[in-house]
Amino acid sequence: MYKMLVVDDESLTRDYLKLTIPQINPEWEVTHVASDGKEALEILEQHAVDLILTDIKMPVMDGLTLCKIVSKMSPRPRTVILSGHDEFTFAKEAITYGVNEYLLKPIVKEELRVVLEHITQDLDKEKSQLLTQQSMRILSEDSKNHVVKNFLKAVIVDSNAEIKVLYPLLFRLKVSLIETEGNLMILSLDEDMILRKSIPYADIPVFKYILQQIATEIVEEGRVFYDSEENTIILVTGDCQDDLIEQCRAIHAKVADAIYRSTGITISGAIGNCVNDVLRLNSSYRKARKMLMSRLLGGGNSCFAFSDESRDMPTILELDKTMMAIQSGLLDRNETNYMVSVRHYAELMDSYQLPVVYRYGVHLIRSIAAMNPNFTDEGIQAAQTILRKLESPTLQAPSKEEVLLIFYEILKSFILHATPRLDNENEHDLVAKAKEYIYSHYAEPISLAIIADTIGVSASYLSNIFHKSVNESYIKFLTRVRMEQAAKLLRARPAEKIIDVSDKVGYVSVKHFSHVFKQHFYMPPGEYQEKQAAALKA
After folding, report:
1. What is the tens place of the pLDDT at every residue in 4-55?
2. Which CATH number fits the domain that encloses residue 199?
3. pTM higher than 0.70 for the full model?
4. Which one of 125, 255, 378, 483 has the largest count of C-beta atoms within 10 Å of its C-beta?
5. Can you give the CATH number for the domain in which 68 is found?
6. What strand order describes the sheet that includes 2-7?
């Protein structure tokens, strides 16, 4: 029920409105009446109302002066003025004081009903917004952190469906994740050490949980979350790249020391490139994942920062390429291909000391398991048991051929655990299905995980075979398709709003869309649109 103050020097008008208004709109009640502006102000000092309905011409204090004073109140009631035809200029002046509506005398019930309906709708909307704001303010820190974590998870897997829901919510919660620069750091258990300690594979999730809990104690809550492989991911923000790298190395050192003291396990860290837009953190994450492979070369218990000029990068890229060839051979059941590729993989090892062999062996097992989401923990455990056959009290460095025999046995073990999908479809068919899905759904909230789930493989495996087959990453291909469609829309409809074009090609943020468009076409979308319009006129 909304409360109204009626101000009029005519008692008949006051009585009429007090009786009629609840009949016209049951949402309203005339709780107070006054005969002039001065009396109305005295009432407002003691009582809050939602609407003041006032005449203009009154003794002592007129309605115009009342409206002027009320306009400075906080909170300010809505105001509606009653005006005679010859007072229209006064009514116009009153509107400058924030008066919401005006009614002409004599009062027409239908006009009064319409005005009350408009004011009611406005107040209902304001009340709803106020309740939302209050809810946001009392939302617990745990709930806010939950929103932040889910948003960051959605960003690294390009899940536009979740981003579209959570991105606006961050603004309403007044959460700013990146002020100047930011990047993502991956903290990952050195599983080769876990294997050497004979810890059962089924216990690894416990150590991953401990790792995240320790990281959460050291880093601001809400900035620590899991990726799809249950690695701990941390959002780090700062003023510049050097500052970010220094922070990341300090965090890794603290977390590594704490987890080693509590579990005896070492961890590796990988630092992605810095970005200035939270929606570009997926790029930082992918580069951090790439750098994590550096531990194959130099061992774990280190923190590796991304750099295109890293001396390890050529070997990392060659390892990545070789692993894709192994996966491709397994998928096609082409024994010659995967045997040759595994041999090349072993030849990339800088020695055959057991710690090195374990690192490469664990990476091989993890990469093959990532091909298919239906591989069981038992299958992975069986593969690790095969790898541990190299253990011997006297054998410190098996021969290359001994390592190859073990790696071949691991592959055959995975083939035994493979699902029928590996028999029925080769990688060319899978990539064709992924491309078809992208062409059909580029304007929708899609992600690599959604596509992979649709065609029945893991996201990491689809990412690898897609890059190999198309010669560009999934995200670059999707971006190119979206940019081509955006350019097509801008050419066909020069008057189209940029924000509408952004939405039609699947972008959540017009700022992010404009940034990507400029990178692709070397000019902002607005400039591109203007040039297309000028060309059409010419």
Report:
1. 999 999 999 999 999 999 999 999 999 999 999 999 999 999 999 999 999 9
2. 3.30.70.270
3. no
4. 255
5. 3.40.50.2300
6. 28-34, 2-7, 51-55, 78-83, 101-104
Shared domain check, 258 and 158: yes
Residues, the chain, total?
538
Contact 457, 437 (CB under 8 A): no
User: Is beta strand 224-226 parallel, antiparallel or unpaired with respect to 78-83?
Assistant: unpaired
CB atoms within 10 A of CB 185: 30
Inter-CA distances, 155 with 159, 286, 379, 470, 521, Å = 6, 11, 31, 23, 24
- Same domain membership, residue 300 and residue 152: yes
Residue that terminates a domain, selected from 279, 307, 335 = 307
Enclosing domain of residue 11: 2-138
Q: Which of 112, 138, 164 is the last residue of a domain?
A: 138
pLDDT in tens, 381-431: 888 889 888 876 666 678 889 899 999 999 888 877 655 444 445 778 888
Q: Residue 394 in 3-state DSSP? A: coil
Sign of the C-alpha dihedral, residues 140, 143, 149, 155? negative
Q: With b meaning 16 or more CB within 10 Å and e meaning fewer, what string describes 389-426?
A: ebeeeeeeebeeeebbebbbebbebbeebbeeebeebb
